[in-house]
Amino acid sequence: MKLLMSKAFFRGVLIFNAAMILIPVLFLINSSLRETSDFARTPLKLATDPAWSNFASVWQDGNFAIYLKNSVIVTGGSLILILICALGAGFVLGRYEFRGHSLIMAFVLSGMLVPAKLAILPLFIQLKWMHLLDSHLGLILVYAAGALPAAIFIMSGFFRTLPADLDNAARIDGASEFQLLRQVLMPLVRPGLAIIAIYSAIPIWNDFFLPLVFLQSPENKTIMQGLTVFFGQYASQWGVLFAGLTLAALPLIVLYLILSEQFIKGLTAGAVKG
User: Fold this and answer.
1) What confidence score (pLDDT) does residue 60 get?
2) What is the pTM of this model?
3) Is residue 202 part of a domain?
4) Cα dihedral: 26, 30, 33, 39 (round 10)
5) When you count CB atoms within 10 A of the terminal residue's CB, does the N or C end of the chain come out lower?
6) Residue 269 burial by CB count (10 A; 0-12/13-18/19+): exposed, middle or buried?
7) Is pLDDT at 3 greater than 60 in this prediction?
8) CATH number where 82 lies
9) Average per-residue pLDDT in the chain?
10) How many domains does the structure of the chain reveal?
C-alpha cells in the first residue's frame, strides 16, 4: 500500500512538473499563431485560424536570419570546442594516475568557482590585444573557457566509472590510446557528452551580457541582442513578438530532442552482451 502511494505521489509530481513546463511553451506557440487584435481581446483563446504571416514577418522584415545564424555559429563553435577539450582532458584525468594529477584536478575545480563576469575587464583587454574583439571567434573562446572546468569534471567522472578491463583488453588487441578512446570508451560516455552539450548550449544561446560587451557590429549580434531590437520594432504586434520568441527557442528544442535520443543510446551502449 505504501509502495503504491509513493508511486502515485512521484507520478503526480512528475505530471505537475511536466505541466509547468509544457503550459508556457504551448501558450507561446498558440500566441504566435494569433493576430494582435484577437490576442488583445482574449489572450487565452486557441488559435482556430492560424496566422502564419507572423512567422513570415519575423523572417522577412527583421534581421532575424542574421541574428539566428550568428547564434548558431557562436553556440555551435563553443560546443565543438568544449566537447573536444572535455573529452580529451576527461580521458586523461579519468583513466590515468600520474604525478600532479590532484593538482590539475584542483586547478580545474577552481575554475568552477570564479564567475566569468568577474573577469570581464581583463577578458575585454585580452581580446582587444589578440584582435578578437567584435568577432565570433573571441566570444567562442570566452564561452569555452568558462564552460570547460565543469565539462572536464563531468567527463572525468564518467571515464572514472568505466572498468579498467576495457582498457587492458583493447591494448592487448593492439589498439592505440586514440583508438581506445574513440572506439571503446567514447560510445560509453555519450551520456556525459549529452549532458555537457545541453547544459552548455542553453546558457550560451540565451546569454545577453557577454555578446553585448564583446560584439559591437550590428551584423555580428546574436539572437538575444537581436530580440531587443525586435521588441522595439514590433512592440505593439503581439503575434509577431511571440513568433520571434518561438523561432528563437526552436533551435534549443531541436538540439534537446537530438541529444536526448543519443543520451538513451549512450546509456544502453555496451549493456547488452552478445
Assistant:
1) 78
2) 0.83
3) yes
4) -140
5) C
6) middle
7) no
8) 1.10.3720.10
9) 84
10) 1
